[in-house]
Design a protein that fits this description.
- By secondary structure, the chain is an alpha/beta fold.
- It contains ten helices and nine strands.
- The two termini are about 20 Å apart.
- The relative contact order is 0.15.
Length: about 300
């Protein structure tokens, strides 16, 4: 069990964005602030060089920037699959990506999106996972409503409109489907971001005998009463400036210690919630690459070893 603080400097190609803007965006993105209030607060930061367009370009996702692995990459093969979810929305759908060539079987990794559905960034993360030698499945929680709508604002609204308990059951069903896939070795990992980080923590507690390794990025813990069930090793990735999620860490750590969980927490200095997402101004390239290297090393250790 360990905790690590990482330090860095991060260059940007726009004027410095005040930290308040990132904090307000986090409140807006998580439903704690209405859009008009968010825009009104942003307007108080506008200057001759820090225009509203600059602020919005820095905060809002630009998914053209979020493709590190092309869907045409010859080292992967991507498709869509459906799976049964009897305790959730009856049927789930996800983006399945396999390494190529795939000889025999491979360990599997569930990739869990944020609170807005299966957007292009998360699909790219699934391709990165596959390129590293794992079969990846990225489910879309919005499948019952027609799937990710093409923009995050509408996606957030759609996800809020769905039954949270049923969404969680859909991800449990996805994890079991993936673990039992005909090309799976039976070793299951999960990585998730924001809401997806919560889902990874939830899976570790809800299906402890199914999950073999979990990497929650800036995710809140599972319900307190089930944390004692966690068995899988966890690699917990937190951002120093993410006060909302970090407030839950001390109690969560106490519960992990009490349960004897093998965990490591990394705190990424001067990084914001969402620092791994390369489609927004919150992206921190150096910290994101370090966190991703650690993620793949963690999965290699716990999923590929005998």
């Amino acid at each position: 069990m360990s905790e690590n603080q990482d330090n860095h400097s991060n260059a940007t190609d726009h004027p410095p964005i005040p930290q308040e803007a990132f904090d307000w965006y986090d409140d807006y993105a998580h439903g704690r602030m209405e859009r008009r209030d968010f825009m009104a607060r942003l307007s108080t930061l506008v200057t001759a060089t820090l225009t509203m367009n600059v602020l919005l370009d820095a905060l809002m996702p630009n998914y053209a920037q979020a493709e590190q692995v092309s869907f045409n990459d010859p080292e992967i093969k991507a498709s869509y699959v459906t799976f049964e979810s009897p305790k959730g929305h009856q049927e789930g759908r996800g983006y399945l990506v396999k390494p190529q060539p795939l000889e025999g079987k491979a360990p599997v990794v569930l990739v869990v999106h944020e609170n807005r559905g299966l957007n292009p960034y998360i699909k790219d993360v699934a391709r990165r996972v596959a390129k590293a030698g794992f079969i990846a499945l990225a489910p879309d929680a919005l499948h019952p409503s027609g799937g990710y709508p093409g923009n995050d604002d509408e996606g957030r609204s759609m996800q809020r409109s769905l039954d949270r308990a049923k969404i969680e059951q859909d991800f449990i069903a996805a994890a079991k489907f993936l673990k039992g896939h005909e090309e799976s070795t039976g070793k299951l990992g999960a990585v998730g971001f924001c809401f997806g980080g919560y889902v990874v923590n939830m899976l570790a507690a809800a299906i402890p005998d199914e999950l073999d390794a979990g990497v929650p990025f800036y995710g809140t813990p599972a319900a307190k009463e089930i944390r004692k069930n966690i068995k899988a090793p966890l690699l917990i990735q937190l951002a120093e400036l993410d006060k909302r999620v970090n407030a839950s860490w001390p109690e969560y750590e106490e519960d992990l210690k009490a349960a004897g969980v093998d965990y490591t927490m990394h705190m990424y200095a001067k990084a914001n919630h969402g620092f791994h997402n390369d489609s927004t101004g919150r992206y921190d390239e150096k910290m994101a690459e370090l966190a991703w290297e650690r993620t793949l090393a963690f999965f290699n250790k716990h999923l590929k070893s005998a």
